[in-house]
Amino acid sequence: xxxxxxxxxxxxxxxxxxxxxxxxxxxxxxxxxxxxxxxxxxxxxxxxxxxxxxxxxxxxxxxxxxxxxxxxxxxxxxxxxxxxxxxxxxxxxxxxxxxxxxxxxxxxxxxxxxxxxxxxxxxxxxxxxxxxxxxxxxxxxxxxxxxxxxxxxxxxxxxxxxxxxxxxxxxxxxxxxxxxxxxxxxxxxxxxxxxxxxxxxxxxxxxxxxxxxxxxxxxxxxxxxxxxxxxxxxxxxxxxxxxxxxxxxxxxxxxxxxxxxxxxxxxxxxxxxxxxxxxxxxxxxxxxxxxxxxxxxxxxxxxxxxxxxxxxxxxxxxxxxx
Length: 322
Prior knowledge:
By secondary structure, the chain is of the alpha/beta class. The chain has 10 helices and 13 strands. The strands form 3 sheets. Strands 5-4-1-8-9-10 form a 6-stranded parallel beta sheet, with helices on both faces. A 4-stranded mixed beta sheet has the order 3-2-6-7. It has a 3-stranded antiparallel beta sheet with strand order 11-12-13, sandwiched between helices. Strand 4, helix 2 and strand 5 form a beta-alpha-beta unit. The longest helix is centred in the last third of the chain and has 14 residues. The two termini are about 35 Å apart.
C-alpha cells in the first residue's frame, strides 16, 4: 500500500460510474413522431460505485471514488456532480479512447423503468486502478458492479482485495449480472478467486439464484458461503433482506416507503450497511440502517435524491446502538 497522504479516504468505492439522464414519471411513451413536454430532464451521476460514494458522503463519511469517465462534457459534469456532494474524485481518471458511460432512464407510471445505456469508459476500468488507490488508512473497500466491467480481471481483483484486507480493510462486494442469457459458468469462474477475499457479499436474490442455481434464500446463501464468501446478504426488495454466515442467519424486514423509483436502492442499502459498520455496529445492527437507507432511495426519481438526511440516519444509528 502507498504511504498515508492527505488524500487517504476511509472508504474506497471502486466500480461503475454513469451519467444518468432522468425524465420525470410520465403517463405513457409518446407515439412515433410526437413530442412530450415535461417540466425538466435532470442529469445525475449514477452507477453502483458512484451511488454508494454519494450516499456515504451525505452521511459525513470520507469516501473516494475509483472509476473512469470519458474526455467529454459528461465526464466533466460527473466529476462536478460528485465533488459538489463531497466525494473525492482524484481516483476518477479519464479514458481518452472512450466516452463517458450514460443511461437514459424512462419511468412510465405503473410500469417498470426503461433504460437506454452506453457502457463507455467503464470498459477501461481495471483492477490496477483499485490497487493504485489503496492506502494505509482505508477501512472499507467496496466493489460495485463486479461482473459488468470487462477490463476488471478476477485474479488481479482478488490480489487487490487481498492487499486491502491485509491492511485491515473490510471488503464489501456487489455484482451486476446481464439480464439476458447470463453465462453462469463464466460468472462462477469470475467469482471463484474474489469471494474468498470478500467479507460481505451482497447480491440481490435474483442474482443469487442465477449464480447458484438455487431457488430459496438459505440454499443460495449456503452455496455462496461454500464459494468462499464470509458473510452473505441477499437483498429482496419489498421482502426485506436475508443474512447468513457459518454461525448465524436471520431475516431483516422491509421498511415501508412511498415508492416512486427503485433506482439505486441496492447501492443505498450497501451505503447504510457500511455506515453502520464504520460506526462500530454489528452486521445485524447495520442491516437496520441499510434497510432504512435503501428504502429511502425509492422516494424520488434518481438514485440518490431521495436518501434520508444525515440527522435521520444518525437517529437510527443511536437507536441501533441501544
